[in-house]
Specification:
By secondary structure, this protein is of the alpha+beta class. The chain is built from five helices and eight strands, in the order βααββαββαβαββ. The chain has a domain of 127 residues: 2-Layer Sandwich (Alpha-Beta Plaits). It is 34% helix and 34% strand. Strands 1, 2, 3, 4, 5, 6, 7 and 8 form an eight-stranded mixed β-sheet that branches. Strand 7 and strand 8 form a beta hairpin. Helix 1 crosses helix 2 and helix 2 crosses helix 3.
Length: 192
Amino acid sequence: MTDTATPTTVQRALLLTDVLSDLAFTARYGQPEADVRIEKLNKSFAPIAVKNGGALKRTEETLCLFEFDTAFEAVSTAIQIQRAVRKYNASQPSRLPEEPVRVRAAVHYGVLRESGGEIYGEAVMFLAEFQELGEAEEILVSEPVHRMIAGGAVESVFFSLETFRGETAEVYQLLWDAALERRTKANPPSSL
């Protein structure tokens, strides 16, 4: 049966996580076992999102896409996922320092289209593109999210000025852990 639901346009917060397994991880477990471990880790993220009011919308290989009503919920979930991954790494027996599983995450708030339980549109594509700028353990946020969480418990700082699909956008790094290195990819725009 084909879903003929009329698409609706909504504003939502999106969180995209990406498990970054390196060659040492794959070499240690072999590709099939590494894939199983990554899938299991990705599945462990869903209850964290649900607890924060989110919903898992899509998984694909190392990626998980979550939808939330607010940027705060998405950012809180991203932080909790990063902490859960650290806990996971610490629980692994005989894990060598160069073999931990790492996750990068990105949060965006924007307009998306929903139909039949699927989400799509510019907000999803934008999130996927700017998430790739992140490195292990980083959480990057879009300028709308930066504005929405300003003055909260977690600071976000300018990371980069990027062009996505012909439009300039500011990307920020969430300083969720004091031990993480603050990175700046480019000079901040003159408005900052």
